[in-house]
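Form 12-C: Joint structure prediction
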Amino acid sequence: MKKLIVQKYGGTSVADPSRIKNVAKRVVETKKKGHNVVVVVSALGDTTDKLIELAHQITENPSEREFDMLVSTGEQVSVALLAMAIHKLGVEAISFTGAQVGIITDTAFTKARIININTKKIEEELEKGKIVIVAGFQGITMDQDITTLGRGGSNLTAVALCKALGGDVCEMNTDVDGVYTADPRVVPNARKLDFISYDEMLEMASLGSQVLQARSVIFAKKFNVPIHVRSSFSDKPGTFITKEAKTMMEDVVISGVTLNKNEAKMTICDVPDKPGIAARIFKVLADEEINVDMIIQNVSRTGFTDLSFTVSKSDLNKTLRTAKKIAQDIEADKVIFDEDIAKISIIGVGMKSHPGVAARMFDILAKNKINIEMISTSEISISCVISKAKAELAAKALHTAFGLDKKEKK
Amino acid sequence: MKKLIVQKYGGTSVADPSRIKNVAKRVVETKKKGHNVVVVVSALGDTTDKLIELAHQITENPSEREFDMLVSTGEQVSVALLAMAIHKLGVEAISFTGAQVGIITDTAFTKARIININTKKIEEELEKGKIVIVAGFQGITMDQDITTLGRGGSNLTAVALCKALGGDVCEMNTDVDGVYTADPRVVPNARKLDFISYDEMLEMASLGSQVLQARSVIFAKKFNVPIHVRSSFSDKPGTFITKEAKTMMEDVVISGVTLNKNEAKMTICDVPDKPGIAARIFKVLADEEINVDMIIQNVSRTGFTDLSFTVSKSDLNKTLRTAKKIAQDIEADKVIFDEDIAKISIIGVGMKSHPGVAARMFDILAKNKINIEMISTSEISISCVISKAKAELAAKALHTAFGLDKKEKK
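Section 2 - Result
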């Protein structure tokens, strides 16, 4: 059956002319199977970083409009080169900028949101039998100003195009061959998932998985666009992300274990236990643009409480300065922090219908003599902050206990 | 008086961030004098060459549409960086691609011709008090395909914008400080001209001067756009190119001496003197895309003639092969060639009203024992092919004899 396939290739997949030729070959193979192909590409390798470096040699604080004008050239170079590489293989292809295919965005330069896509031009070229190549990461406002979509923008372009064109699948070609039950570098027995639901993928993304940014998954979920995460360098199928992957794994309670070592824990000791104090603390942190992840409050002695929270390690110094000032203002005691923590999470839509998953997780950690410092839960995930030294042990133990290890090894 | 000034800066003027900052300073100075300023910039230094190199790593024969898509990114980078540099000086500026300001061209990719310019957007931004920066060298077709204008395209953009906007002057900021009576590297006494006419500038460009390509001068002449050729690195006035510069130099017979050492002379000996033979020869050369410059025919013996012509040295081998084949076909004798020639030319609208200029030129060359091999004339120029070894001597002698040497030295 003839399908419409949107393929996205990231910067490492098109880092140099030889890799671009490899991508051209893959695209042409898909086309020769009889499908219509729309390709979305990112800028070559570190091109975007080089352009940003140029801008910073001019000014430390470039205008966002001009910044987008500058960095959007990276993807324009990629699409032209990929079109040439496909022509070289004797197949018709045509490249477009975001502006040319009418990817209309709002005016939030550097992090614009797609408002509408005019698919007429792409559909005309597909009907002529051509492979259509679209510059990722970029769009244009109603006033014809060039915008970029922010981090992970090319993924977003691909998902949005797939939705607008009514495509059958949006292939994310990347440098890993799919979504794994855990990071294979941490858990050698990690298994590639054939299927995963949008919700699970979202939790994974926000809990530390680097495969796909949450933003494009949210978009895909909203419009029910099927995603196929696969390797640019292999022909094997990767992981399909769809609405309801549960049918494929009815007896699977959790689908993945993630580990995040990039957070630090901070505690403001002996905070006066008065209404409005917590709100005041987190308002000040938010004003400083510090992103707080987990929050725990422990009553220590009457009228006082210890308030702990985690932040990204890159914000540690700023947070420490801010927290010390807050502590003084609200007449709390000292501020202590711990960098040697890790957040271990288990994710799975299965836990909705399986009670006792949290208890089982705590039990497994306890049996491995791993102390739990903080806990937080969502509908389909449970996260624990533990000592960094025990992180790998915890990941492996949970992975095995929840039946995620490779079948062959069982 | 408030003027509208179009300033063009070439690739060497914006080769790196520090030079871009220098251009920003110059642009802002002009703006602060109370003028409206529209700036046209080329790609940074060797950016275009690097992009072409990338394309050639993919295919030796890239699609012209995709080629334009690729190389047009160079100017887009420049305009964004220049806008940032102007902002840094606290002055408002906005950058545009050729597409954004509606520089509409035909579909002759890599050498497109401007059909129309929609000035609305530029005028709106000028009215807001902004400096408007436009990417040179590029345009867009009615179908929204990106095109480039070919060699010297940024100059053409500047002249065309000046015409469309009704600008007062089109400043060509370059790495020389004006148009000289001769190449100062050859004739140390060469003098910068304050004024020159379009026609003279055109002859200079086609006879070897590198300052401006003929194409933008033809356009400027057609629409009577005043051009000011000046240095990017100095504040001194350069050379104004206008319709009629004669009034400024009534007793000046010639305004410049040019030298071209890039041609070779070829002679097909003993060509049968029959009607249609010359046409046949030059038709074959034209079919091979060999550009013939001067042509001379000498009757040597009854019924036969020696046919000499000059071609660019880069075409020498191809021309030799073709000429030998022609000679055989038309039953001529051998083909001989001479690479050691130079074409010396004198240019001046003054010669229209001064008879005997040619005779005086020949006399000066004769007095310097320089043999003339070929002669060609136009309404405002006379060119002689001489031995390359005598080229510098001829240039200096003519420059002095026609009164072009620096006033101070007289």
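Section 3 - Comments
Chain B touches chain A through 37 residues (CB under 8 Å). The longest strand of chain B covers residues 263-272.
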